[in-house]
Design brief:
Helices cover 84% and strands 0% of the residues. The chain is rod-shaped.
Length: 82
């Protein structure tokens, strides 16, 4: 039945060669895996830096808003300290 659908089957040595080639195409090599891991680590470091910069931006922005609005406890503090 297989020959009717797929044509004549390959001899075993040729079939093993085809399987080996297919395996190399599907399974990445050790160097490809290492390169992928390195790229993922670089991307993670970039994201960490961006998150850190965003955190600093929001901290600075909240400080600016606090200074613009003034601290409502300032007058009370100065009255008590005097």
């Amino acid at each position: 039945m297989g020959e009717e659908i797929f044509g004549p089957l390959l001899p075993s040595s040729r079939g093993m060669l085809v399987n080996d080639i297919a395996l190399h195409l599907i399974v990445p090599s050790h160097s490809q895996i290492e390169e992928t891991i390195l790229n993922l680590k670089r991307a993670q470091a970039d994201l960490d830096e961006l998150f850190y910069q965003e955190e600093i931006k929001w901290a600075q922005r909240s400080r600016v808003n606090l200074l613009k609005a003034g601290n409502k406890n300032t007058r009370f503090f100065h009255q008590q300290a005097s």
